[in-house]
Design a protein that fits this description.
The complex is a heterodimer of chains A (about 210) and B (about 425). Chain A is α/β, with parallel strands linked by helices and about 210 residues long. Chain A folds into two domains: about 5-95, Beta Polymerase, domain 2 (2-Layer Sandwich), CATH 3.30.460.80; about 145-205, no CATH class. In chain A, about 20% of the residues lie in helices and about 20% in strands. A three-stranded antiparallel β-sheet of chain B has the order 1-2-3. A three-stranded antiparallel β-sheet of chain B has the order 6-7-8. The chains are: A alpha/beta (about 210), B mainly alpha (about 425).
Chain lengths: ~210, ~425
């Protein structure tokens, strides 16, 4: 069964919740409404032979509404074909149902999507951060999060504040510092989350003798 | 007739006896932390292991200690600028990652490479596969106690590092492929070096085989340990030698051939029950098949240019850049703005030594991707660890970790 036939079966079953397929470079992509995603996945696994979930990724389309989307890449071992499902997730309601009941591999992929974008998966057995530490306050892959990062307190780090020196070339091109005029010029979208750091650049770079 | 007090004593004694007999009483469990620094958790992997005596009841892998934000970086770099980051994903087989990434971006741009480029990429990927499997087998052996094997396999890896240095100047982080071709053609001493390696390598591999494959201790440590059933393997999305060890005959080089893999004649080893020993055998046999592929590629290496001359995304020859106006503009635009990828999204996966390395690229036009998701095989394979480890003891956990052969660089990205 080719992906096109699977999409036809899916559309016959779920009608308007499934959009028309888009084909690019031999791959078929279909947009699915977020209420129907678990049923659609279960149908595709049972009826069309898509027994493997190759990839699940979140995407941030900054400036569009709905802002986020979750892309599922399904693979059929018997038919040797891929199929991609896209589900839009709006910024006001960042939740979508989990598909861990269909493929157990979705567990860690969904945790990563939550960790990086903040997309919550209803019904997930263990929705915790996976790459960043628990309690990290930001969602790094969102477009307004600056590339140089935002300084946060590391958990359990024992650092004597008065023994810490500012990095020698802080603020320049090689040791960037978020929250200064220069970084704001380079990445204007961080304006919502910026922390003022101009005075750190002026701090003297001396350490008292121990 | 017993008093009230005596009856209560008898009842509580009976309850205590029952609690002792029940093996799963929670008070007897211990949580052990195999922290991120541990010689057997290859790389920075933290395992939280719940033990009942010595038996593992549950294990939770805690990943993310090597997270460097590669996907965020990719959204701020042109496609060519990202190539050195792909070296550092699976840092045990950098050439394989380079090949996978280059093929992915070429698929996005709809571009085909020259036959010579494809064959050289195949040779590089298979050399990387040999290198990675040697390390995998060596690490598994040393964790179990066979220290000599580790030294033998690393001696062979040294020869491979010399070959990589010959081809691109770096032993380890190669960055050899470019979008649309390769950085440079093969140097003249490459083919003799590879032939010399292929002549000497089978003897060492047979020696490793003689030391391990029928070794009673190795068999006891690996047979029936870390079983992953076929159904579980597909459900967890594991790929690579683990999937093939569990009996699923699926190899991307055969199922969806890329970079001229369809021209080569090789077999795909498949295991039976999915234990650590099956995975070890799959890796040993894949190493032998890789030698076959390299020999065929070298014998039939097509002549011709490595980089197709009439392509907008490659840099022109330096002598033209310095003398002609059009090439100068072309070089300037390609280096500063990057190649002009069409809007659209693709997924391309390659058969890396660790499994299926996939790049999911969403492009909205221009030289910088909108989203680049790296489908890392080690990230997905590690998810199956709790299923493989349940019911075993800690020393089996060490063998299972060695047989999964993950690498934290690509797991955490």
């Amino acid at each position: 069964m080719t992906p096109a036939e699977s999409v036809e079966k899916l559309r016959a079953r779920y009608g308007e919740a499934v959009s028309a397929p888009v084909e690019f470079r031999g791959e078929v992509t279909v947009a699915v409404a977020s209420e129907k995603i678990v049923e659609a996945c279960r149908f595709l696994k049972a009826e069309c032979g898509f027994d493997m979930l190759t990839d699940l990724s979140g995407v941030d389309n900054y400036g569009e509404d709905p802002r986020f989307e979750v892309d599922y890449l399904l693979y059929s071992l018997s038919n040797r074909c891929h199929l991609r499902l896209k589900v839009k997730v709006s910024e006001d309601d960042m939740t979508i149902d989990t598909v861990t009941s269909v493929w157990r591999t979705a567990d860690w992929h969904e945790r990563e999507a939550f960790d990086m974008f903040g997309i919550r998966f209803r019904g997930h057995p263990n929705l915790k951060r996976i790459l960043m530490w628990d309690g990290y306050p930001y969602f790094p892959l969102r477009k307004e999060f600056p590339l140089a990062g935002i300084p946060t307190e590391l958990p359990d780090a024992e650092v004597n504040a008065d023994k810490v020196r500012t990095a020698p070339m802080l603020g320049g091109p090689f040791v960037p510092l978020t929250g200064t005029r220069r970084s704001l010029m380079r990445e204007p979208r961080q304006a919502d989350t910026v922390v003022e750091n101009e005075e750190r650049l002026k701090r003297p770079n001396k350490q008292e003798p121990v | 007739m017993a008093t009230q007090y005596e009856m209560e004593m008898i009842e509580s004694a009976a309850r205590a006896q029952q609690a002792l007999e029940e093996a799963s009483s929670p008070g007897e469990r211990m949580i052990l932390n195999m922290g991120p620094q541990h010689p057997s958790t290859h790389g920075v992997l933290r395992l939280v292991v719940e033990l009942d005596g010595e038996e593992i009841v549950n294990v939770w892998p805690d990943v993310g200690y090597l997270h460097r934000g590669d996907e965020k970086i990719a959204e701020n770099m042109t496609y060519t600028q990202f190539i050195p980051y792909t070296d550092r994903l699976d840092y045990l087989a950098p050439l394989a990652n380079n090949v996978a990434y280059a093929c992915a971006v070429e698929k996005l741009c709809g571009f085909t490479t020259t036959p010579r480029c494809n064959y050289i990429r195949v040779i590089c990927a298979e050399l990387a596969r040999i290198s990675s499997h040697l390390l995998g087998i060596g690490a598994l052996a040393i964790d179990i106690g066979a220290v000599t094997v580790f030294l033998y396999t690393f001696r062979e890896r040294e020869k491979l590092s010399d070959i990589f240095e010959c081809i691109c100047g770096a032993r380890f982080t190669t960055s050899y492929t470019r979008i649309g071709g390769l950085a440079n053609d093969l140097p003249p001493n490459f083919t003799p070096m590879v032939h010399k390696f292929l002549k000497e390598f089978p003897a060492t591999l047979e020696e490793v085989d003689r030391l391990l494959t029928r070794n009673k201790i190795f068999l006891e440590r690996n047979r029936d340990i870390g079983l992953l059933s076929r159904q579980d393997a597909i459900d967890f999305g594991v790929t690579g030698p683990i999937l093939r060890g569990s009996g699923v005959e699926w190899d991307i080089r055969k199922a969806h051939p890329y970079s001229s893999y369809e021209h080569f004649d090789f077999d795909v080893p498949v295991g039976t029950i999915g234990d650590c020993f099956d995975r070890y055998l799959v890796r040993m046999e894949e190493t032998r098949q890789s030698q076959r592929i390299i020999r065929q590629a070298l014998d039939n290496l097509p002549s011709g240019p490595v980089n197709s001359p009439d392509v907008k995304m490659l840099l022109p020859e330096k002598k033209d850049v310095l003398t002609k106006m059009e090439e100068l503009i072309h070089q300037f635009i390609n280096v500063t703005e990057g190649i002009n990828a069409p809007p659209g999204e693709i997924y391309f996966s390659a058969e890396n030594p660790k499994g299926e390395l996939g790049f999911y690229i969403i492009s909205k036009g221009g030289g910088v991707p909108h989203r680049l998701k790296i489908r890392a095989p080690s990230f997905v394979n590690l998810q199956a660890l709790p299923v493989m480890a349940k019911g075993h003891i800690i020393s089996d956990l060490v063998a299972i970790l060695g047989s999964i052969d993950f690498v934290m660089g690509e797991c955490d990205r």
